[in-house]
């Protein structure tokens, strides 16, 4: 046995901290896959996609049931990666809903973020759709990359080129209710990341800075009935996709620890929403993943259970427990990838494990997670010791790594940002930070009309005086929501606070007179409020901790373990945002807040890349 092999095994454990398939594994690099494991489930999805593609079916609803750790998300990851390879369908993945009363709005955000993921042609799924629309409208056969390359030059030659393209596309999409959807989709072809980001934000139901909305020809959505508007927009987008390819919409577990205003659980809200989606879309496959007891005790007990189950549970597929051969195939595949990555040749395919021990484990008919946990605990050179790493630290580091590429997805997510901040403060209860002794962190008591604006309240003592700091995360670009939030944040008497604290990364539009007035009051000496600048690098550790805490059952971690890790590593107590929220207010508007009104999005002739030469048929010359 080589020293290299011993050294690599003693310092690396490919199984440790990898018990759970996370969102980034579904979209990005997945775990080693054994296609034979639960192939009946993935094959059923592929078959449904083919039936929809060939016109045999319009909509198919499939539910996968399996206990925790049996491999539901492994199967979903396999499906996503296969669809990315063969291009047979577009894919949407939803695994959480922060506000069960607004699942339609949250689904629209999920839809927009899913479609910005790379599809089968090394471009985003949005860019595939934009290209398909243009090709049909102009009877052409352009590749997405051709159009992306042509876009800057065409925009310089004709600043209204998107409007021209939109009108041409609308000629073949006469039943579309909101023409701005086409406009925004076409803007995703822009290689300028600012234009693309603003387009996807608009498609996600967010308000844009008014100057950007005007420049891009988009109307900001009213906040009055955003929930209904979100469903209408999502339906129109999915139906546009259905004109060209099937779409697979996946709801994975959707666990929550709370109910909506009507008393429905997260699984029930998801099932009802998926049923409504089945009724309203032209073509697609709806895939729901759920635990068996929740399927029986929650979904099947809904008042309209028959209609829900008929739609989303047309096929109910149970995943299978592993046998001895499955265990051998699973472990050998993981080890094969590990040794290939390290350029090593082991003595045998299962090294350093004993085949008989693995087969004995298989006789217990284990779940996938139990096998991977056994491997993580026993991965060491015979006679040697394994590496000892804090299990919380492993998962935390994975979340930090994932956020390197995904954090922008959360920078507009008020609920997730607020939950991450609240967790940080919950862990430091009893501590004195910046002269504030933290006693508790509580909800802000509000009436129905005031819900959704103020996130939580920190109660404590500062120099023996009571202090009640109300925190409001406000990432909306503009519109009435900004004004409404600031108006509440300065109402100290109504909401029982001594200091209002705004958490925000971007400037507030100088033309928004009322919002600016409320902001001035908040930061005045009289009210002593604060604006703490939100930056990705400061919120990242708290987001990572929030995701660790949220997924603790899957990772077999306890709440006490996680809190102990946070305290030992001083992740919360030393965090800039935590300390800044508690520190004496400066009363200043942060100088380096993002100026969206002047942020990029202005392509000049010097920035135009070479335009692909497509001869006299150049689309943008028409």
Give an overview in words.
Helix content is 47%, strand content 10%. With 622 residues, the protein is α/β, with parallel strands linked by helices. It has a six-stranded mixed sheet, sandwiched between helices. The protein has a five-stranded parallel sheet with strand order 2-3-4-1-5, sandwiched between helices. A hairpin with a 2-residue loop joins β8 (456-462) and β9. The longest helix has 20 residues, at 391-410.
Itemize the secondary structure elements and their pairings.
Layout: H1 3-11, H2 23-27, H3 39-53, E1 59-65, H4 72-86, E2 90-94, H5 103-115, H6 125-138, H7 144-157, H8 161-170, H9 180-187, H10 193-203, H11 210-216, H12 226-242, E3 247-252, H13 266-280, E4 284-290, H14 292-297, H15 305-312, E5 315-318, H16 324-341, H17 355-362, H18 368-378, H19 391-410, H20 414-427, E6 432-433, E7 436-442, E8 456-462, E9 465-473, H21 480-489, E10 499-504, H22 513-522, E11 530-533, H23 536-550, H24 559-569, H25 576-582
Helix pairs in contact: 3-4, 5-12, 6-8, 6-9, 8-9, 9-10, 13-15, 16-17, 19-23, 20-23, 21-22
Characteristic key phrases:
globular, alpha/beta, single chain, five-stranded parallel sheet, 622 residues, 47% helix, six-stranded mixed sheet
Mind describing the biggest β-sheet?
6 strands, mixed
Strand order of the largest sheet: 6-7-8-9-10-11
- Helices, by number, come to 25
Radius of gyration, whole Å: 26 Å
**Mass-distribution shape:** globular
Q: Based on helices, strands and strand pairing, what is the structural class?
A: alpha/beta
In whole angstroms, the N-to-C terminal distance is 68 Å
Mean model confidence by pLDDT? 91
Low-confidence spans: pLDDT under 50, at least 5 residues?
Answer: 601-617
Classify the helix fraction into a percent range. 40-55%
